[in-house]
Design goal:
Elements: E1 20-21, E2 27-34, E3 44-50, E4 57-59, E5 62-63, E6 68-74, E7 82-91, E8 94-100, E9 102-106, E10 112-118, E11 124-130, E12 139-140
């Protein structure tokens, strides 16, 4: 069978990466990921499922040398704006507690996170878009206050 011209631009296979989780916390299951590492010229898009768990999952404080957008979408068919969890997100020195589906935009260089997701009662669709042409580059904020780590 002949390969179609645009076939390589349609991704249907999960990324080759291990699920992330914390003990008794929510699991982050890779769903789809595309970037310049697997398709020349593509910017970074990552989609994951966050599955239920009682304890928080935490992503540490960092920034990027390019813009980033993250989205958390609840899966309650009766109320799609219900996140089904509690997300605590730091942007620089400001704390946000979020219980609704949300998008968050971080301009390049802005320190964001830690991001803690707790009391996950139903799956959440998580996506991350970064305007880079390869795998994302993280600048870890090692000097953030201990209470925020």
């Amino acid at each position: 069978m002949t390969e179609k011209k645009w076939e390589k631009y349609i991704l249907t296979e999960p990324p080759k990466m291990e699920p992330k989780s914390s003990p008794d916390g929510p699991k982050m299951l890779p769903l789809l990921m595309q970037n310049g590492a697997n398709l020349d010229g593509a910017f970074h898009v990552n989609c994951m499922w966050v599955t239920p768990g009682p304890n928080p999952g935490i992503f540490e404080a960092h920034s990027h040398p390019y813009d980033e957008m993250i989205g958390f979408v609840g899966t309650n068919p009766e109320d799609p704006y219900d996140l089904g969890a509690e997300a605590t997100l730091w942007i620089e020195d400001e704390k946000y507690v979020i219980t609704r589906s949300f998008l968050a935009f971080f301009p390049k260089g802005v320190v964001h996170c830690p991001l803690t997701v707790s009391n996950v009662r139903r799956p959440i669709l998580l996506f991350d878009i970064q305007l880079c042409r390869k795998r994302p580059e993280f600048i870890w904020a090692k000097d953030s206050p201990p209470a925020r780590r």
